[in-house]
Amino acid sequence: MKEFTIQKNDAGQRLDRWLAKTLPLLPAPLAQKYIRLKRVKVNGKGSKRDVRLNVGDQLQLYINDEFFDRPTPENAFLSLYQPKLNILYEDDQIMLLDKRPGLVVHPDEHERVNTLLTHIQAYLYQKKEWSPYKENSFAPALCNRIDRNTGGIVIAAKTAEALRVMNQKIKDRELNKYYLCVVQGRMSPPKGKLEGFLLKDEVKKQVYVTDRPQPGAKTAVTLYRTLAVEHGLSLVECDLITGRTHQIRAQFAHAGHPLIGDGKYGRERENKKYGRHGQALYSYRLEFHFATDAGPLAGLDGKCFQVEDVDFVSEYFPNYHWKEDEVH
């Protein structure tokens, strides 16, 4: 319990608004709940949220200590009362999540609270499966990343061993990640391979594709197959042999078939034509094929997970339905 005395500068405020200012990490719905449960007392008694405070009032707060901390990137998860996650799979080791386009995966200089990782932390904290306040506590971590405006499956590790094993499996290509995208025009051939070299411009946060090796350029290989063609657009499935930054977007643009909605590698006039904001790209399917011991993740071997819906498929290819056999 912590006690506060209302001073002149705080007099006249509503109780709930004083609480929001004093404890910025405490989510508003949780603050209202604590007031209802009389865990916030004014002069030793329970009170209503809209009561006006007076000079000299004594407030007793029966609230967890962590909510009295000052906000930092490390404790931002506390402010999320109802984390929003689309969980495809969860066990005591990992989580598979369908990240929506527009959501950044990690906190950065622009967004600290509304990120995929922060929502995961809040979810596990509220389930009492994780707490950063425990000694030697492992912080939930992401095993793969997806661009802000790309949607799809992200793997999160709940334990240090799961993180180590999954990262090694990804490195050894013992799982397959399939993407769906909508590109302009018709691919020729309809099924094939895009090969090249990607050179990254750190200043512009953009990559450039070259057909020949260059100093600093990394090999990029993408397998693709066309699933449907309608109205000058192609629905394409991609299997990344290499996992480079912006690989799919840059390679298809280089091949003359940019993704619709792609503001960085696409064509502005075409994007306006189709009314697409954000690249039509989704990591929609994940398959596990372990060739070596997977320890605590062995139960995933041979399993496949697929998202339930991809908005641009139903929008641009309403008659197409992908097969969902072997999906668990």
From TrEMBL:
Swiss-Prot/TrEMBL keywords: Isomerase, RNA-binding
GO BP field: enzyme-directed rRNA pseudouridine synthesis
Record-linked CDD domains: PseudoU_synth_RluA_like, S4
Catalytic activity entry: a uridine in RNA = a pseudouridine in RNA
GO molecular function: RNA binding; rRNA pseudouridine synthase activity
Catalytic residues (UniProt): D147
The keyword Isomerase is assigned to this record: yes
Domain RNA-binding S4: 13-73
Classification via InterPro entries: PsdUridine_synth_cat_dom_sf (IPR020103), PsdUridine_synth_RluC/D (IPR006225), PsdUridine_synth_RsuA/RluA (IPR006145), RluA_PseudoU_synthase (IPR050188), S4_RNA-bd (IPR002942), S4_RNA-bd_sf (IPR036986)
Gene3D superfamilies, per the entry: Pseudouridine synthase (3.30.2350.10), RNA-binding S4 domain (3.10.290.10)
Keyword presence, Isomerase: yes
Enzyme Commission code(s) on record: 5.4.99.-
PANTHER family, A to Z: MITOCHONDRIAL RNA PSEUDOURIDINE SYNTHASE (PTHR21600)
Job description of the protein: Responsible for synthesis of pseudouridine from uracil.
UniProt similarity note: Belongs to the pseudouridine synthase RluA family.
Name the UniProt record assigns to this protein: Pseudouridine synthase
